[in-house]
Amino acid sequence: MSFIGACGLARIATVNGSRQVRLIAARSQQLGSYSTSSIEPKEPPKNSQTPSEARSATTNLSSQTHAPNNLEKKMLVFTKKYKSVDEIPSFVNQDVMERCRNQVRIKLANYLMLATAIGCLIMIVSGKKAQERGESVQKMNLDWHKEYNEKARQEAAQSKN
Question: Any alpha helices (H) in 45-136, and if so which ranges?
Answer without folding.
Answer: 51-63, 70-78, 94-133
